[in-house]
Amino acid sequence: MKYSFLGRALFWFLSFTLPFLVLLAFQVTPPAKPSEKAIWWEIKLELKTQGKYRLEDSPALYSGNYLLTFLWRGSTERDNGDYILYHYSNELLQWQAEETANLPTFIKILTTPDFMERPSFKINYILKKEDHLYFDFTVNSFFVPVNASLENFYLHLPSSKENFQLISDINYNFFVRKGSNQVAVKESEIYRGPVEKNFNWTWKYQQWLDKGNRIIFISNGHEVKARLTIIPHQARG
Question: For strand 195-210 and strand 176-179, is the pairing parallel, antiparallel, or unpaired?
Fold first, then answer.
């Protein structure tokens, strides 16, 4: 009778505890925290832009279009709580431009070789705010029309949200019509492995200007595709 009681007790003990032990044995291990072994990161930023501009100064009409692609390469490394940015190369892979001047007596068309100035790309820094890293960059431009004209205006080209394009009194960010020009990544992502992100936005600015004896109209717009690639490395070599 004594052994029968002990047997039943052992049976009920195992019935309740064995499933619990099995559950512990097969419990999923919590995901590991991001590795802190990476000490520098390779960075590649490709920026593609297609745009148009227009100046109406009756009876003259100027209109232009352009296509450009930049490829910037560099790296970054930690500096206490911030990141130092290093520049390696900056290539203008594609640049095509055309401008037409419709004047009262003739029409004049300029093509890429006639554009004496070309756009240039610049990344200023990486800014860490809370748990994200923000990229500050801009494409420096020139004034249009390229044809001789009484009036001209600065041709705004892409900028990230962190850049304010101080060369002009126009707030670039305010005229982003679609998408977002905030180019940023979560800091924790760059420790987990390679990161590739795409950013797209549409920008457009239009304005009528009173010149006293005449009214002129300017229009400027572009579409942007940016691809950011970040690759972690543990040691330089």
Answer: antiparallel
